[in-house]
Amino acid sequence: MSTWRFAVNGEPVEVDVPGMRRLLDVLREDLALTGTKEGCGEGECGACTVLVDGAPVDSCLVPVCQVDGARIATVEGLAAPSPEGAVLDPLQQAFLEAGGAQCGICTPGMLMAARAYLDGGGGPDETAIRTAIAGNLCRCTGYTKIVDAIAIAAGGRG
Amino acid sequence: MTIRTSPSRTTTPVTPSPAAPDALVVRRGALLPGRVRPAAPLRREGPAKLTGEAKYADDLVFPGAWYGATIRSADAHARFDGFDLDPALDWSRIAVVTAADIPGENVVSLISDDQPVLVPVGGEIQHHAEPLVLLAAADRETLRSARHAVTIRTTPLEPVFDPLASEHVFAHYEIASGDLDAGFAEADFILEGEYRVGHQEQLYIENNAMIAVPREDGGVAVHGSLQCPYYIHKALKRSLRLTAEQARVVQAETGGGFGGKEEYPSIIALHAALLARRTGKPVRMIYDRHEDLAATTKRHPAIVTHRTGVKADGTLVAQDIDVVMDGGAYCTLTPVVLSRGAIHAGGPYRCPNVRIRARATRTNTPPNGAFRGFGAPQVEFAAEVQLGRLAETLGMSPLEIRRRNLYRIGDGTPTGQILRESVAAEDVLERAAEAAEFEGVRSRTAKARARRAGSGHVPGSPLRTSRDRSASGIGVALAWHGAGFTGSGEVKLASVASVELGGDGRVRILTGSTEMGQGTKTIFPQLVAAELGLAADEVDMAAQDTALVPDSGPTVASRTAMVVGGLLIQAARRLRATVEERNAGAAFADVRARDAATHGPTRIDQQFEPYPHVHFDDDTYRGDAYPAFGWAACVATVDVDLDSGEVTVRDVVAADDIGTVIHPVLAEGQVEGGTLQAIGYATIEEIKLRHGRYLNDRLATYIIPTALDAPRIHAILVEAPFSGAPHGAKGVGELPMDVGAPAVVAAIHDAVGAWIHELPASPERILAALGTTRPVDGAPASAEVAAAIAEPIEAGTDPRPGAATDPQPMRGPRDPGEPT
User: Fold this and answer.
1) Are B237 and B102 in contact (CB under 8 A)?
2) pLDDT in tens, B302-340
3) Residues A6, A9, A10, A12: what is their CA dihedral angle, to the nearest 10 degrees?
4) A95 and A45, same structural domain?
């Protein structure tokens, strides 16, 4: 056991767990942040995507020792708290309006991959968007409305 | 393990900001002109899914829960002689459950009673992933050690893997109409073909998961990822000897199903419940991807043979079709899958003389079961490729041969059903062809083929083209899909759905229909609110919990919007009439609070009643197989890499008639998602087996399309309402799955001149098919040229130069003296 210190959605955290414990398990089980999902456990589906220092990673493949000192962003940190309740991030709002989420299990990972794309200055170009989310599998939507939603969030509407 | 700091989390419920009016992407042509509808509501559970608040099974916390595991067979067919527990392990910390611990019947309740919950010692193992022993422990580490400390003893038995050779028949049907011999006698040409499709995995991104919690009354509550709460309820009652109250099934948020969570969750729930009963603790059975792929049901593989008689003008006069499906080791839903397959086998075409023979047999492979389309995608792939080959044979456009034969109002189907209304085969075909500019593109691809033809060999390659390293093609397919249960299924189900005006004046929907992404929780309140004069968000949905909601039938067969939605509309109308009558005709929306205060809660239970004029005879297989059909056309454009054989599906137009459209965004989402699953089926999704075991049982080896593999899919919604449903809806879930694969295969043919008879159209199969188009001794090669110049046909000959393109020979008119 060692102590690992990092930030999750802007809040500092310390956990005492084996260093090889998966970041996914630390988030879901130790920190009760179950928004991040497990789809395959081998880095194929992207459902567990979180941002480590702004970069999208499969949290099922990352041991917690590798994120010591890092900034982690999960789906729980996207919506902004407000007195009336949380307000959806423009990306979440675009997914809601365009129909980018169906069963919703890939959605947290998809949102984080898309957030990283937008934060990196990505625009409404379809091929660029598809490339950015190529590591995130969705079995419901056929991707068309996900791509639309990201393009809307990138300012590409109308 | 200690947690010192936890990030502060927003616990305030998230409410969506009001939808901008332009938020809903309704494409031009999606709605019939002149019809005004209120804006469709946003996905009800969308905010919870988008913020991570939604709780899927594995997100649920039950303090003190143990972890469960399944020890499975490693033999395809064997006698289960027993098992040994390694004495080096402390087994007092581990629960071990076998068939001997099942208090009720050792049967997974479904159609046939052939599948055990656990194979008993001394019993027969029928497939390699068969559950034998269950384990549970308080922590994962102990459980992992225990799994490795169990040794299974078996005596191998001879397995059967070939469905054609298997003598164990789960079901068989024969559908016949007209006079087959007379039909072939009047045919100008007869074409034969054999088509094969393999397993396909549903591949919901959330694996199967179930948590069983012991109840104080000796019963059990299960919480899980599932489509059909009452299937599980029935299975629990039967195998655990529980009353209806002692067995409780609660759906967690469900991360996709596609049929894969129709029947298999019953087994997992039984396993978890047996372990919970043994330990007295909640037990979590959360499959990982490997176990989910290795053990749970797949789409049935099928072998379909066609013999088709056609007139020179393209008119179909005889279809003789043989369908064999591989059921796997147990019956599951196979008879119903096969039934749908048999009824749809001819495709959406009028033909006076038809014989369809279908059978499903047992093999020693994991059982196959429900998957979106449910028997129809297999047979419609075969029917459409057969029709495409007929068109090529006759030198006719693939569009034209469909126009000449497609069902129109008044036509009769092979079961003798007269299509009285809601027939939109022509509409969807023309809309898709027009949007994709089918004929224009096709004439360009034909010119490109002609230009490439004869351009010489590529050294070291089986190909004879040298100018272009890639070929483009366009293909069309047409399909039909029976809406709702087959035959008298809906009558037997007698589903119930309810609408309640609560004592607090709130309206609540009570139904067992589940949300798994398709939009149940959004469209039900939308439909009920419209009847009651309320806004959609003024109508609540009760949880899918058998302690709360009635049995509305399973959430399968594209029946939820059509059948259960129809029941809710009828219930809402009765509720409105009841309330308005006792309030002097005042509008429901205005008086509901006062009415509730005066009269208390009012609940209307609406039970299914047969659709008028719809009759089916299960014994003779004659009559109205479905109350209505949905119709779909798909035009696909592909690029084929001539060096690697790899196919890129570039563009797809999908036109689907689903009756009245309730929610355009959700309906388009179904069309787009189903279309991509069909493209995966057509191009890359394949299960390889060795000795009855799936070889590629991981997500690294069973691949599905990514965003980069996926084409842009243009969905066109066509509305031919069904008068039997109060809202005119016919269902949308399965329809797009039927039509994508044959469109892609037709496009591959258009690109390279070779027909692919077996899915998926992998690079290996495409290169093999291209190999057969090699010119012999410098003869002008090719089917490509034939298609491009459309040579006239001489009766009685195969008109295609290089007929070896196609391994299925075509024959001329039958000699009158020849036996059939």
Assistant:
1) no
2) 999 999 999 999 999 999 999 999 999 999 999 999 999
3) -40
4) no
Inter-chain residue contact A13 with B6, CB threshold 8 Å: yes
User: How far does A63 lie from chain B, in Å, by closest CA?
Assistant: 16
Domain finish residue from A77, A112, A133: A77
Instruction: Indicate which CATH number applies to the domain containing A13.
Output: 3.10.20.30
Total domains in the fold of chain A? 2
Structural domain range at position A96: 90-156
Nearest chain B CA: its distance from A134 CA (Å): 5
User: Residue B776 and residue B802: Cα distance in Å, rounded?
Assistant: 9
Token readout for A123 is 């625009």
In this structure, the answer to whether residues A115 and A137 fall within a common structural domain is: yes
> pLDDT tens for residues B443-486?
999 998 888 775 544 445 555 545 678 899 999 999 999 999 99
Q: What are phi and psi of B229, to 5 degrees?
A: -55, -35
Record: contact A134-B5, CB cut-off 8 A: no
- Does any domain span residue A73? yes
Q: Among A48, A77, A106, where does a domain finish?
A: A77
Q: What is the ipTM of this complex?
A: 0.98
On whether both A73 and A98 belong to a single domain, the answer is no
**Bridge partner residues of A17 (DSSP):** A2
Verify whether the Cβ–Cβ distance A130 to B58 is below 8 Å. no
Output the six-digit token pair for A143.
């991707």
What would the pLDDT profile of A5-50 be if each residue is shown by its tens digit?
A: 999 999 999 999 999 999 999 999 999 999 999 999 999 999 999 9
For residue B306, give both structure tokens.
């066609």
Considering only alpha carbons, which residue of chain B is nearest residue A74? B52
Same domain for A51 and A94, yes or no, is no
